[in-house]
TrEMBL record:
<keyword id="KW-1133">Transmembrane helix</keyword>
<keyword id="KW-0812">Transmembrane</keyword>
<keyword id="KW-1003">Cell membrane</keyword>
<dbReference type="Pfam" id="PF02694">
    <property type="entry name" value="UPF0060"/>
</dbReference>
<feature type="transmembrane region" description="Helical">
    <location>
        <begin position="34"/>
        <end position="52"/>
    </location>
</feature>
<keyword id="KW-0472">Membrane</keyword>
<feature type="transmembrane region" description="Helical">
    <location>
        <begin position="89"/>
        <end position="108"/>
    </location>
</feature>
<protein>
    <submittedName>
        <fullName>YnfA family protein</fullName>
    </submittedName>
</protein>
<dbReference type="InterPro" id="IPR037185">
    <property type="entry name" value="EmrE-like"/>
</dbReference>
<feature type="transmembrane region" description="Helical">
    <location>
        <begin position="64"/>
        <end position="83"/>
    </location>
</feature>
<dbReference type="InterPro" id="IPR003844">
    <property type="entry name" value="UPF0060"/>
</dbReference>
<comment type="similarity">
    <text>Belongs to the UPF0060 family.</text>
</comment>
């Protein structure tokens, strides 16, 4: 599997875990769900942090920047799958732009020869 594909899968899993964890708080405070929703949410947020440490990036800041692009795309798909709000053309264009930026950060030589 290629370096970029492994990174994308890792960041996709991390994004799903973070969104699920944050959604548990949203469900509790905004949708009136039980505070018990916070228990799996906390586990998801812990999993997110652990997954992000396996980033192929050399530095944490770069890892978080790479992750941001995949997070945006995953957020749009979460909204579609969980909340029923399909992304429109503007959402998809913005997500594509972010993905290109994330891939540029991942694949650029960054001063390496």
């Amino acid at each position: 599997m290629s370096h970029a594909l492994i990174a994308c899968l890792l960041y996709g899993l991390a994004a799903f875990a973070e969104i699920a964890g944050c959604f548990s708080v949203w469900a509790w405070l905004r949708l009136g769900r039980s505070p018990l929703w916070l228990l799996p949410g906390g586990l998801c947020l812990g999993l997110f942090a652990i997954l992000l440490t396996f980033s192929p990036a050399d530095h944490a800041g770069r890892a978080y920047a790479l992750y941001g692009g995949l997070y945006i795309i995953t957020s749009l798909f979460w909204g579609w799958a969980v909340e029923g709000l399909a992304p429109d053309a503007w959402d998809m264009a913005g997500a594509a732009l972010c993905l290109v930026g994330a891939l540029l950060i991942l694949l650029a030589p960054h001063g390496r020869t």
